[in-house]
């Protein structure tokens, strides 16, 4: 069952009922000011950091779901005996609407609704160049008679630090402060401005108002929720000026509309920072100059429309970096719109703020951010460059790294510390992807601090060497890399041995175990070690490349011997040196990660092990909704394995379909030339292909979720944790570079598709290193292999399009065969 449809020409997903199985959200903002907005107008706003600079409140864990947002109330007083209150997004009053449509577009959302022949259209977005969210609200009277309407706005301020805001009531209920100007048209939220903050927030409307409220209790009534505000029931605000408690911003506008008449209002929710020495315009009165400038930039519809057009152009331009036209509508839709869009959102948010990540939890993950980069480096290479430097700056001198860092300070997070032994290698993955994309070797010469300490800074290439050496020098009894606290699978905690609730699986126990090893990291070392060796070669350091390849050989050997279980790759060795992910185990006999990653790294291909490993995946882990992370599920808690066995069977890392590593298996299949199977795996978790089962899947049908419940779970097929997942980047890498086969190498783009039978011919436009490539691929009856490649009319040998300085356009014809 569906709850909407894709409108590809508008680049929108259209939701046709507010009662989706879960809130279906969108993200507004591209640089520093962001909002989450659901299809019922729930959500919140922050500046740069969802924990430290939260503008509006949201209540996670609330009943019902999705219960704070930025709301408009329409009170239709036309029939004085039958006044009706409703919201354009249905929540929070939940009056049944005559019409409802939410369109989530790229960086904006619209809500078109009507009740009793009054129609509202709300457009909301964050403009490209301002720290504000703009909402354009148009109310139209479609009745045959005059309509009497009162419009109320409502936002609830968060007292900046979202974590403290929901805990520290003894202080917070006394700190709230506001200012009100223009009889309420503009409301300034200035809590803590008098002391150490030099920022405030505004909520403003471009019209005179008939009333306002800034005290939540005055507007709602102390025992009401936003579903039944006293002020709305009474038909008027109370002009309250908050002092402590919970400050809000609400404006009241009375309207009389003739038949057919429309009125439009522009609301701005903005963030303003003043210079330290220019905070006040008078004692106790905030300097409003920058706020007034912001307000005047959006004072009329033309200005708002121009800002929206600018936003839409930005996206159009961005997405034109990789564009496919094929006979597969769903592939085109994902590649051209939604997958790239999700990659950008994960770039902006890492794992910080979604409806499942509360914005107060983890900062940016080292490994997560490096992998996210793989999905957006072709879109915003300059920002990817900066991101790499930021991430590398949190590395330690021995090559290990803080597992997380705070986006605002860019400092490593010492609560979680280091010891996740896959982390260092992801830095190589991200850097290599950046250089293959841009050819910019200068990044390797950048001087980058360790642990943010400039006195011990070295070149980025030295950082990569530390990464490489960390793995090379931290190996266990079988010559496989030590796992530390965990590798990619945060829940495989082989050195943890936690026996008491409340202990963090991530940080409990010794981080370094001298015994527990990871075959997955072995796969990474072979893959990214080789990428490191290539970088060394590019810098002219042949000896280092050779040394690296010697080290890689040793780990490769270990992977195909100690790391091989007979029919598939072992997952790990635990702290007692017992196998994890082996036929010898009672539960958890086979794990997905080493099968996908070892094979995509090329391990066991020539020995015939790769074929076997992927066959085993198909036989043991595959389901109709995707490939499960392990089987059989753990039915009891294993002290020696940690969190993986703490989840009920079928969920999360315990035999869920962890979407992130499905593309690894799909890529692995392309390495073996299996186009049919690679594409089959791609489709199983692909949002556009599973839109039809939105009632089972539950999460947004336009983005990937982190996890889909596995076969052992009661709710098999149900998605969880949508939006912020490395799945976005990896699926984009998979479809764009491996299945469609346009892969950036150091020497230029290579063309090597691996597509299913009957996929058909396709064209790709790819911007790369300042040139446009118009690539047309003819399938010619095969799944893999390039028979001929013609570039600008000349046939070239091999499958790499030679890069020529100065050439701005390449016409490429590739014939498979
Ligand atoms: C979460 C984490 C990621 C980890 C994965 C598997 O998605 O963000 O870092 O690799 O879980 O445990
Ligand atoms: C839990 C989750 C895992 C996540 C980790 C870090 O272990 O199961 O997916 O990566 O927390 O937040």
Structure overview:
With 817 residues, the protein is an alpha+beta fold. The protein is built from 20 helices and 43 strands. The strands form twelve sheets. Strands 1-2-9-10-11-12-19-16-15-14 form a ten-stranded antiparallel beta sheet, covered by helices on one side. Strand 11 (118-125) and strand 12 form a beta hairpin. The longest helix has 21 residues, at 329-349. The radius of gyration is 28 Å and the shape is globular. The mean pLDDT is 97. The site of one alpha-D-glucopyranose has 11 residues, from helix 8. Residues 362, 490-491, 643, 652-653 line the site of one alpha-D-glucopyranose.
Q: Can you describe this structure in just a few lines?
A:
By secondary structure, this protein is of the alpha+beta class.
> What can be said about the biggest beta sheet?
10 strands, antiparallel
Strand order of the largest sheet: 1-2-9-10-11-12-19-16-15-14
Radius of gyration: 28 Å
How much strand? Answer: 25-35%
Strands, total number:
43
> What ligands are attached or bound here?
alpha-D-glucopyranose
Q: What structural category arises from helix and sheet content?
A: alpha+beta
Count of helical stretches: 20
| Poorly predicted runs | none
Distance between the termini: 40 Å
Shape: globular
The whole-number mean of residue pLDDT values reads 97
Please give the share of residues in helix: 25-40%
